[in-house]
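> forwarded from #structure-qc
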């Protein structure tokens, strides 16, 4: 049987892959594409995580696509609303028909002579081969099969149930139960209030505090604008407002960390009981936005701390016991259920093994170009969004730039494109300058980034608008060749 060939192969049918397909259809209608999705459903993150309360911490006016207004009253949205939005985008644009489910990409081999990728896929245990001119990797940033759980002393002694939020059992009945949630990140602060409404008591056990900022779950300005303006215009204005707002909070955090710390502390203290030890539980050792800030819609976490249905403990785990957890302070926490909200295992490019003309690609030796391609890797673009703002804001710009790059290649008659470092010893730094545990654990195996454009992976939307939307796609660091002539154009 002849091997199927597509112009662009998108890996992943999450928010990024569906978005990439939209831009391809809109801007490159002559090109064929397919989306390969390892799971049997679209939506990625928003379908995988099923724990109670699962929601965004970004507002959907910036997390949503630029081309499709978010029209719900809730601006911080639950996973089911986000999934509806993604799937509606896919179906109303015919993208759903291009998704091949249960197709896990295992490896991709580039051939310069043929100017294409040969992609090996596992489809329900059966090997499938597809060739593609380009790969657009929208496979997210973490392993789907396994969340991260540190080794806990005495884990096997615990007679209750241990649950990881990435693998939440659909039939878990926690009514009236004593629950300890280990962690202090976005997942833990989402879970605690969601569980507290039914559980006997929920304890959030953290090793160290995180910055937690209450935000309104509804955006009053957005909802008013939507009543008086056409949906597209209202969305555009709200999106701009929120982009500026997010950037402002980030900039102020970077420039005036002490003022920001004071502001967050005062906000937290206002929401907590009078005698609450705010500094013990809500005063991190790092500065705001050195790690992703956690938001709690309408202060729901603080409400549960006020009404006593939840509590927070800052301590270290000495060991799990038969009935719960013993802490280093000697205190014991009783539990029927322990939830390990201890994070993700970072994995870029869907774990796909890449080779170029037979030589394996070592990601750690590569440098990111414009935050969307890798040095010396031809015809491969990827979607990695912001970590300090809504992921999708960046992915939309990357998709736009990618489609412009394809048009440019058509214009100059090139079919191969790869970034080349200006000097092999160009100074680099880690790809993600982010203190999160999952980043630190994997940073050595990731590509790096340069110190300035175009080798810098920007985390600044305004700068990216200039570079990716306004700037030329041609670049002195990009090599364009044609497989028929193998000739350098630029
Ligand atoms: C619980 C949680 C909440 C979050 N909340 C926010 C938020 O509020 N704001 C924000 O900006 N970010 C948030 N993030 C980060 C979030 O993951 C991204 O913003 C966004 O959802 C990523 O979308 P994506 O499509 O790039 O990747 P994903 O959603 O991870 O989707 C990737 C898809 O690729 C598929 N895939 C992976 N490898 C392969 C392969 N080898 N072959 C075939 N298919 C493959 C996966 O099955 C998956 O469907 C959150 C993350 C988590 C875990």
């Amino acid at each position: 049987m002849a091997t199927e060939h597509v112009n662009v192969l998108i890996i992943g049918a999450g928010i990024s892959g569906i978005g990439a397909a939209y831009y391809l259809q809109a801007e490159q209608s002559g090109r064929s594409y397919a989306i390969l999705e390892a799971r049997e459903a679209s939506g990625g993150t928003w379908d995988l995580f099923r724990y109670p309360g699962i929601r965004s911490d970004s507002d959907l006016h910036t997390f949503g696509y630029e081309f499709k207004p978010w029209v719900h009253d809730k601006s911080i949205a639950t996973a089911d609303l986000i999934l509806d939005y993604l799937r509606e985008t896919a179906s109303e644009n015919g993208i759903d028909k291009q998704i091949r489910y249960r197709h896990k990409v295992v490896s991709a081999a580039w051939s310069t002579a043929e100017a294409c990728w040969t992609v090996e896929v596992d489809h329900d245990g059966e090997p499938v081969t597809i060739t593609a001119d380009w790969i657009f990797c929208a496979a997210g940033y973490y392993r789907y099969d396994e969340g991260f759980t540190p080794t806990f002393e005495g884990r096997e002694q615990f007679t209750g149930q241990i649950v990881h939020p990435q693998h939440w059992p659909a039939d878990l009945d926690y009514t009236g139960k004593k629950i300890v949630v280990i962690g202090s990140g976005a997942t833990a602060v989402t879970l605690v209030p969601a569980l507290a409404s039914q559980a006997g008591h929920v304890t959030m056990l953290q090793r160290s505090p995180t910055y937690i900022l209450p935000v309104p779950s509804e955006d009053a300005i957005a909802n008013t604008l939507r009543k008086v303006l056409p949906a597209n215009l209202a969305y555009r204005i709200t999106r701009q407002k929120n982009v500026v707002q997010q950037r402002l909070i980030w900039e102020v955090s970077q420039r005036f960390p002490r003022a920001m710390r004071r502001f967050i502390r005062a906000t937290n203290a206002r929401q907590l009981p009078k005698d609450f030890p705010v500094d013990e539980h809500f005063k991190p050792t790092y500065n705001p936005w050195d790690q992703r800030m956690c938001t709690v819609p309408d202060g729901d976490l603080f409400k549960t701390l006020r009404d006593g249905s939840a509590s927070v403990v800052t301590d270290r785990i000495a060991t799990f016991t038969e009935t719960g957890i013993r802490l280093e302070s000697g205190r014991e926490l009783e539990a029927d259920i322990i939830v390990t909200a201890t994070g993700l295992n970072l994995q870029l490019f869907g774990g796909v093994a890449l080779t170029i003309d037979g030589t394996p690609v070592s990601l750690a030796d590569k440098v990111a170009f414009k935050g969307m391609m890798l040095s010396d890797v031809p015809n491969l673009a990827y979607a990695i969004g912001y970590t300090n703002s809504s992921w999708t804001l960046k992915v939309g710009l990357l998709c736009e730039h990618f489609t412009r790059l394809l048009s440019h290649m058509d214009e100059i008659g090139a079919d191969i494109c790869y970034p080349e470092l200006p000097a092999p010893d160009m100074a680099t730094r880690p790809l993600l300058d982010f203190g999160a545990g999952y980043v630190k654990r994997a940073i050595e195996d990731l590509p790096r980034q340069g110190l300035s454009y175009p080798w810098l992976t920007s985390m600044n939307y305004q700068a990216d608008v200039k570079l990716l939307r306004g700037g030329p796609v041609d670049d002195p660091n990009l090599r364009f060749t044609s497989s028929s002539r193998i000739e350098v154009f630029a």
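QC bot note: The CA atoms of residues 7 and 32 lie 5 Å apart. Residues 11-17, 36-39, 44-45, 49, 56-58, 63, 104-105, 138-140, 144, 186-187, 350-352, 383, 385, 390-391 surround flavin-adenine dinucleotide (CB under 6 Å).
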